[in-house]
Request: fold
Amino acid sequence: MSNISRRKFLGTGTKASLAGTAIFASTNSIEKQMKNIFIHHVYFWLKNTGNLADRDKLVEGLKKLSAVKTIKHFHIGKPANTNREVIDSSYAVSWMLMFENDANQASYQTDPVHLKFIEECSHLWSKVIVYDAVDVS
Amino acid sequence: MSNISRRKFLGTGTKASLAGTAIFASTNSIEKQMKNIFIHHVYFWLKNTGNLADRDKLVEGLKKLSAVKTIKHFHIGKPANTNREVIDSSYAVSWMLMFENDANQASYQTDPVHLKFIEECSHLWSKVIVYDAVDVS
Reply:
């Protein structure tokens, strides 16, 4: 089925953002809320701060890394153009992953594709901070 | 249409996670990748570290805050049970927001609902770190 048909089927209002899985709650009142997910958010600082070639090498590595099967969704980001006092925009690359559960995240850590990424790209970064978050029960 | 029908329509494989909006790329090769989004990820540390009553007050405040119309998706989290050296699990609450664009995030900052949240809940936290990320172009 084409994307146009799918959009038509789902509608173009807020319901259009509903996914078919447990990640997005399915009742109208909380349809914006993501649930039953493990968010693994990694921020990378480059050894060569501000070096766009190195940044792009890291991004290419992350694209390959995204092939890991247990990754449900991912986003590759850079700092937005915001600058309030509480914002840390000193990082170079944001790597946000969603997993269906703890076990899938744990599996990702030892996946051969992940180990190869570390082998090939770890020389690029000087610092990594990871925040792992699960639903507040 | 019921959720069961929707699931049947979308299928139960990887395509089931496709959303109908631009947030999720629509071709098979990159369907896992979130695109065209502004991720605003906030981590809160409580004044009363480890105080679950205060944590829950903050969570209740965030649930009210989620009513802001420009928020596309949100997740309210707590640290997962992971403990490698690079992981910062010292925060109390993770507040991950997705906006469709920079303007919607900027609008959220001055939304009356947001200002009320700050007024009602800011006494609960001692530290906030924000990471804003947009697609790497």
About this structure: The helical segments of chain A are 3-10, 52-65, 102-109, 112-121. Chain A has a mean pLDDT of 84. The radius of gyration of chain A is 17 Å. The first helix of chain A runs from residue 3 to 10.
